[in-house]
Description:
This protein is α/β, with parallel strands linked by helices.
Amino acid sequence: MKISTMLSYSDGFQQAAHDVAEMKKAGLDLVGVAGAYGFDSPSLMGYLAALTEKMEIGASILPIYTRTPTLIAMTAAGIDALSNARFHLGLGASGPQVIEGFHGVPYSDPLGRTRQIVEIRRDVWKREAPVVHQGRNFTLPLPPDEGTGLAKPLKIIAHQVRSEILVWIASLGKRMCS
């Protein structure tokens, strides 16, 4: 059995880190950091990774509309490296009020986007070949008629700690509220 909690960071990162240290003394195994519309949660997760040695750190939950699939994979690989393989990636669609209201991004096809992001991040982490993906929501690399024509397939240049990171998928309802 593991003990976990969601971390509030409304009082700032330093206070949140102090709270985590106190909870660790009480036996906390896993802390989840929400990806709400406050400070950027990966910043706090990296900070916690640097301040802890054994506690697992989870993104609870990183919204899928606020980052590209490859940036999600790169962020997860970076936090996993900082934490020495103690990171869990939580992904979710959030809701249209936040995504369209705060981020200005259309809230469309949450289930399809999630599936594609999971596929793309898997390819990024494998590092077997440059990432190529053709889907309804994401096409990598971008076709010449949709950009400058200079895009080419790439693979992550960093050698991450693990080629697979635990991924949690959050859902608020039927077909992820599509």
